[in-house]
Structure formats: structure tokens, C-alpha cells
Design goal:
Chain lengths: 115, 110
């Protein structure tokens, strides 16, 4: 099976702009989670989607949003970018609730730099 | 604040030695997982231990869980240079909502 893919891999944006990141989960996986990783804060949970519904949400401002499509692909959007949004954004897929314990499979990440 | 905290923050050992890293967390969990990350890339799942389990093995990895102390440990035996990476514990509180620790940076010297 192909792994989790994320596009783009690298992105440079300017403060105030918005950005959309994409994640394609492993075939058959219906749950997609997003994480932000920075040197100072480490890995922080953003949100999780299952069957096109947001099931869990971390402690991030409303500028961070996401959605999931019927084919389980997911996008996350960050509006009004700030310098502090520079980070590695990781997407993880899993089978989803009710499928046993939830091993997550991570994509390579999108490195976002805000200037 | 983060749910999990790894200790030590950094560990340097010789190839062939064992490496032990610990994770402490704050609230009750469904399960705890360990991940490895190489050079700022995506994370690789290593092992999962459920809250009703006390010990699990996978190859050279041994994980223990003590729910009374809210702690877990990861032991890597007979370490290799390829084990050099950052190791994270992740606690699952409610089902697919994971909180990652700060990570232990392991360096294995050939």
C-alpha cells in the first residue's frame, strides 16, 4: 500500500496570507489527524477528522481549520499567517474508531515557512 | 501543557549498548504509543501498549507501562547507529486524540 502523502512538501508564505495543505491517507484509512511540530512547542495536536466530521480538536485558534472529503483525503487551512505558524505540519492516518487501537501512520510533512 | 514528558531529553550511547527512555503523563489513557522520528521527517510508529497491558516486546524493543505511576519506558537493546533518532511517546486519551511528549534525542555512536 502507498503511504500517507502530503503536498506540498515545502512552502514559503508571507505574513497575512493563507495556505492550504493537503493529505492523502493510506487506502482504507478513514481517520486523518493533523499535527504542528515546532522546536519550541514540540508536536501539538490540531484536529482529527473521521467520515468528513471533525471528531477532536486541539487548542489552536480559529485561523486553523480543516476538512475531510468523502474519499478520506483531508486539507487544512491556515488563514492570516503569522511568523509563529512556521512549522512542520504532519498528517497521520489510521483506520478510525471502532477498529481496535489506533496506530497512526504519518506522512513526511509539509514544512511551512512564514516570512 | 503537553500530556507526555520524556526523560532524558538527550541520550548518547555506544553501539551495542542498551538505551532506556522514560515517559510520564498526567491523566488516564486508553493506550500509549512510541514513535521514532529521523531528522525532522515524519514519525514512524514503533509499538503500542494498551492501558490494561504492562509489558510488550517487538524485536529489540521492550515497552513497559505503569498506569499507577502514569509512566512508560522504552528499552532498545543492542543499539545500532541506525537507531539514532528522536523518540516520542504519545498518549491517547479519548480515542484518536494523541498528545505527544517532548521527545528523547538518541545518538548511537558507532
Amino acid at each position: 500500500k502507498a503511504g500517507v502523502t502530503q503536498t506540498p512538501r515545502y512552502l514559503i508564505k508571507t505574513r497575512g496570507q493563507q495556505v492550504t495543505l493537503s493529505c492523502s491517507p493510506i487506502s482504507g484509512h478513514r481517520s486523518v489527524s493533523w499535527y504542528q511540530q515546532t522546536p519550541g512547542q514540540g508536536l501539538q495536536f490540531l484536529f482529527e477528522y473521521f467520515s468528513e466530521t471533525q471528531r477532536n480538536k486541539g487548542n489552536f485558534p480559529g485561523r486553523f481549520s480543516g476538512r475531510q472529503f468523502s474519499n478520506s483525503r483531508s486539507e487544512m487551512n491556515v488563514s492570516t499567517l503569522e511568523l509563529g505558524d512556521s512549522a512542520l505540519y504532519l498528517c497521520a492516518s489510521s483506520l478510525g474508531p471502532g477498529q481496535g487501537a489506533y496506530e497512526q501512520y504519518f506522512g513526511p510533512g509539509t514544512r511551512l515557512t512564514v516570512t | 501543557s503537553q500530556q507526555g514528558e520524556e526523560d532524558p531529553q538527550a541520550l548518547s550511547i555506544q553501539e551495542g549498548e542498551n538505551a532506556t527512555m522514560n515517559c510520564s503523563y498526567k491523566t488516564s489513557i486508553n493506550n500509549l504509543q512510541w514513535y521514532r522520528q529521523n531528522s525532522g521527517r515524519g514519525l514512524v510508529h514503533l509499538i503500542l501498549i494498551r492501558s490494561n497491558e504492562r509489558e510488550k516486546h517487538s524485536g529489540r524493543l521492550r515497552v513497559t507501562l505503569d498506569t499507577s505511576k502514569k509512566s512508560s519506558s522504552l528499552l532498545i537493546t543492542a543499539s545500532r547507529a541506525a537507531d539514532t533518532a528522536s523518540y516520542f511517546c504519545a498518549t491517547d486519551l479519548t480515542g484518536n486524540q494523541f498528545y505527544f511528549g517532548t521527545g528523547t534525542s538518541l545518538t548511537v555512536i558507532p
